[in-house]
Amino acid sequence: MILLLFFIAALAALSIGLHWLIEQPGSITLDWGGYHIETTLVVGAAALIATIAAILIAWAIIAYFFQAPARLKQNSRAKRRERGFQALSRGIVAAGAGHVAEAKRAAKEAVKNLDKEPLTYLLRAQVAQLEGDRVGAETAFHEMTQLSETRLLGLRGLHIEAKRRKDDEAAHHFADQAHQLTPLPWAGHALLEHHGAQANWEEARIAVEANLKAKAIDLPTAQRLRAVVETALALEKQAEHPSEALHLARQAVKRAPDLVPAIALIGRLLARHGDSAKALKLLEKAYAEHPHPDIAEAFLEIAPSESNAERLARVKKFASSVSHSPEAGILVARVALAARDFGAARKALAPLVAEGKTPTAQICLLMAELEDAENGPSGPVREWLARGSRAPRDPAWIADGVISRRWAPASPSPASSTLSSGRPRPSPSAARPRTPAPIFRRRS
């Protein structure tokens, strides 16, 4: 509505101006080149306007012809880019679907029509990976590192390729370069895994702090990893610097109260310092909360010179707070068998082999040992051995398919170097979580 009012006002102003110009007296005379032209003011003004319009039209026509090649080139480039992006889209979809031939054709077309488009390098790398061409993939990723907008993506790709060919030093190099540019979660985790594999625990501690600062991990995860690193340092220092090792282990338990390896180490170090009473009290309290075999082993090591009967009495008291736990029954049965107290061993194992229970392989073997020691070779011995061969496996430390009797700060598998969690009894589904969740842990 406002534009319409302005348009009407402009027409009115133009009409008034033309009327005023017509009413003005006078004429225009032009003498040029032997020509004498005389006309009214209105006609002269109209001629001037027409001349200017003709000049402008002529200039536009001339400019159009001069600019035609540039416009044609620009239009051609736009069409090429459109074809290139269409090919790029087809190629990414084909690569995601595993259609190697279509992805390869689309990649060639995209490279032909798109000059230094970052996504073309990614598509080329994907095609090379699908074809199993590791050299081609690394070449594409390396070219991506030359461009600022794709440098991090190229370093990630080179890191993955280095891991695939099991070149840990190269993988660490690329992760370190990426981490220096921007503290990304994958780079921080890769640095942490590398330092864990090399047992560079001080560097691993720095990497944990860097990951937390970059918000690549949350505070609870950082606390757990700090505790694992401090336990690893304590294990290294326990022989030559026991006091420092004790301080580190205590600090680890403060951060992660259920970190069983640190608790067991504190008990051993206290006993080594001659403070057996304090060690026993600590281990008894910890076993009541976490009835774990590693804590029980540390408890048994505190008084190695005692008799089997004395040890059995001490173990019964030790396990009484968690008598409902299978670990407590197994512990008492083991010590009772060593003391040849068959009644105590049978009583400890009875709840674990009662009707409706599914005894583990270790329980079946203990029952077979008990029957053999008490009654000699017999049918029950063979029966329990047969049941043990089919029984569920007992909880154990496991990482990447490697089962260990002892906890370690990092996975022993060459394919992985993730830090351990040291959690007492996780579920089987937690055996192989991805970083940053540690994977070296108890298997139920």
Write the layout of secondary structure elements.
Elements: H1 2-23, E1 27-32, E2 35-40, H2 41-97, H3 100-113, H4 118-131, H5 134-144, H6 151-164, H7 168-181, H8 185-197, H9 201-213, H10 219-237, H11 242-255, H12 260-272, H13 276-289, H14 293-301, H15 308-319, H16 326-338, H17 342-349, H18 361-375, H19 379-390, E3 396-399, E4 402-404, E5 441-443
Antiparallel strand pairs: 1-2, 3-4, 3-5
The general outline is: elongated
Secondary-structure element series: HEEHHHHHHHHHHHHHHHHHHEEE
Described by strand count, sense and barrel closure, the largest sheet is:
3 strands, antiparallel
Gyration radius from CA atoms, angstroms:
42 Å
Q: Helical amount among residues, as a percent range?
A: 55-70%
The strand count comes to 5
The low-confidence parts are: 424-444
Mean pLDDT: 81
Count of discrete alpha- or pi-helical segments spanning 4 or more residues: 19
Strand content: under 5%
What is the chains' assembly state? single chain
Give the spatial strand order of the biggest sheet.
4-3-5
Amino-to-carboxy terminus distance: 79 Å
What structural category arises from helix and sheet content? mainly alpha
Quickly list its features.
three-stranded antiparallel β-sheet, disordered C terminus, 19 helices, 444 residues, 5% strand, mainly alpha, 68% helix, two-stranded antiparallel sheet
